[in-house]
Amino acid sequence: MSLSNFRIFNLTFPSIFSTNRHLNPIFRNQNPTMLLKIPIRHSIILDFKRITGKANQPPNHFFRSFLLVIGLLFFTSIAFAQAQDLLPSQELKKLSMEELMNIEVTSVSKRPEKLTEVASAIQIITQEDIRRSGATSLPEALRLAPNLQVAQFNSYGWIISARGFNSIFSNKLLVMIDGRTVYSPLFAGVSWDAQNVVLEDVDRIEVISGPGGTLWGANAVNGVINIITKNAAKTQGLYVSAAGGTYLRNLVEARYGGNIGSKLFYRVYAQHFDRDNTFLENGDKNADKWGLTQSGFRMDWNASGNNTVSVQGNFYGGKEKTVPSHSTIDGQNVLAEWKHTFSEKSDFILQAYFDRTWRRDIPSTFSDELETYDIDFQHHFLIGKRNDILWGAGYRFMRNNILNSTEFVGFLPNRRNMDLFSAFVQDEIMLVPDRFKFTIGTKLQHNIFSGLEIQPSARLAWTPDEKQTIWGAISRAVRAPSRIDVDYHIPTYPVGPNVPNVAGGPNFDSEKLVAYELGYRVQPTSKLSLSLAAFYNEYDDIYSVEVLPGTQTYQIQNGIKGHSFGAELSGTLQVAQRWRLRGGYTYFYKELKNKPGHSFDPSSLGNDPKNQGLLQSMLNLPANFQLDITSRYVTNHPKPYIAEYFTFDTRLAWLYKHWEFSVTGQNLWEDKHQEFGLEIPRSVYGKLSCRF
């Protein structure tokens, strides 16, 4: 069977092994390499031209997209010019340009530092950016980071990566919610359908493109996403919101925040949503509508001037439609954090959390249950005036239980306990006060699959004045093996000597990256800020699936190496007091090849567009109206081919005292378009919110 005849694609995202007859042809007697090229949890072989229906169509012209953006901005500029003298006295509830540049971020150094001084390609999505975009989920909010590749796969499936390897299971991006790591050791990626928050309670999202392994460890290879919610003291009172429309069928959220005395603050919340289906290439509805209910709490206690304690938890459950039945997910997590300040020069943080996730795929009745116990400690102190030391250690225990309900494909052993030990140290050396800063450090991490891993980095930042920073970095990072690399088997049980099979990858080692970065951040005027980052990445020991000589057994190996390079530009422009533009552009190129003695098609290891752009416009109009437009453009995905697309979202809102009513249109350029999987429809929804 020729490898060029087929493509692998995932159409029923959260379940591991679909037996959906409508979407999933017969697997048996297929070349196992084809079932593992991505890798994927669903092994679905389809002719990709049949999926997209666009292989022979010419791509949309860039100028059509460009002209539309110009037209939209022209419209908003006219509206602004007419409204400038009539604008209400109430100011926008957003940060000024100076405040934006002085935001303190924590994801780069695990301690607060000004955005303008950070030696990393980091971008911030603020609460105002999220609200004005009309986003209703975390993946939609992450579209606002130009340095991320975000694609919707189906109604509940999303593909999110940074700097390439954009595939069904992007496994080189570390994602955290308030310090709780949400990647799965089953496939080293993120199940985005299980990651939900009340977006109103998000303080900011810090997005780092580039390695973060020195502080955060394995899987922080191409980037780090840190979703930070507000302290309970900042969410006092009642918030209620209800939305409904064509694709977002309904979304109901309620949150109440209160206090006990002057030091203990709390909030409780509940939310429920239902989303409609996407569409097949022939226009038929896909069986992927879904819904989820979630609730949770947070408490923040300022025990004394030197001690703060935070405790939060979330509980969720939902169903995702498949043919002929549905898949079920549920989970619970609890996190506690204690911060103690010894003095102005020394403090520590102790954090612990428990996280349980469970899902069951019907009709295959495959189930996956993961329990995670994590404890992490870090200590920060100064030595003299030049050395700022940060060190820490952590332990994580993961218990994973797989129900292999099908003889065709599964995990052996079906149960596995996994330990993860880590320690790190970092020294930030001030070479010239307020001018030159040199940061060096390393992470030591031990996992059960590849043993001890060392991830060092060195960063240099030069700040010639308070308006600009030039920085460079060299880093090593690893993507630790996951269960799908080591324990994945086809078939699960022996079925005969002449049947091709996959025997897992017992000798699979970590994927490795050495990254070189150079960046420039500048605020040339009081109304404009720009950030440019360029990178060159060298990869080794990348995933491959190859037949063992003289057998019909395929094994997961480290047979690929290669490199990538690109540039990321982002900026914010305060056009006028009530009108702000933000956005960016990313260029990316990747080239992979087989290592000597290996034979595998590396084109399946990520389907990455070379160019993408984002532009968000936020404008206040008379009579407390707001008009917001977010447009994005993505060029062709090269292999398998997915046509370029342009689309935009528009939000029109009216604010009156405690009330906010808005109408949002999403994906408005065409009635349907493909991003990575099925056809994503145009949609409209209305939303009513009140804040007391």
Write the layout of secondary structure elements.
Blueprint: E1 7-9, H1 32-35, E2 44-46, H2 48-52, H3 62-83, H4 97-101, E3 104-105, E4 113-114, E5 122-126, H5 127-133, H6 138-142, E6 149-152, E7 158-161, E8 173-177, E9 180-181, E10 202-209, H7 213-216, E11 223-229, E12 237-245, E13 248-260, E14 264-275, E15 290-304, E16 307-321, E17 326-343, E18 346-361, E19 366-383, E20 387-403, E21 410-411, E22 415-432, E23 436-447, E24 451-465, E25 468-479, H8 483-486, E26 488-489, E27 501-502, E28 511-525, E29 528-547, E30 553-576, E31 579-594, E32 611-621, E33 625-634, E34 645-656, E35 659-666, E36 672-674, E37 679-681, E38 683-691
Parallel strand pairs: 8-11, 27-30
Antiparallel strand pairs: 1-2, 3-4, 5-10, 6-7, 8-9, 10-11, 12-13, 12-38, 13-14, 14-15, 15-16, 16-17, 17-18, 18-19, 19-20, 20-22, 21-26, 22-23, 23-24, 24-25, 25-28, 28-29, 29-30, 30-31, 31-32, 32-33, 33-34, 34-35, 35-38, 36-37
What does this structure look like?
- The chain is mainly beta.
- The chain has a single domain, classed as Maltoporin, Chain A (Beta Barrel).
- It has eight helices and 38 strands.
- The strands form seven sheets. The chain has a 22-stranded antiparallel barrel. Strands 5-10-11-8-9 form a five-stranded mixed β-sheet.
- Strand 3 and strand 4 (113-114) form a beta hairpin.
- It starts with 6 loop residues before the first strand and ends with a strand.
- Mean pLDDT is 84; it is low at 1-92.
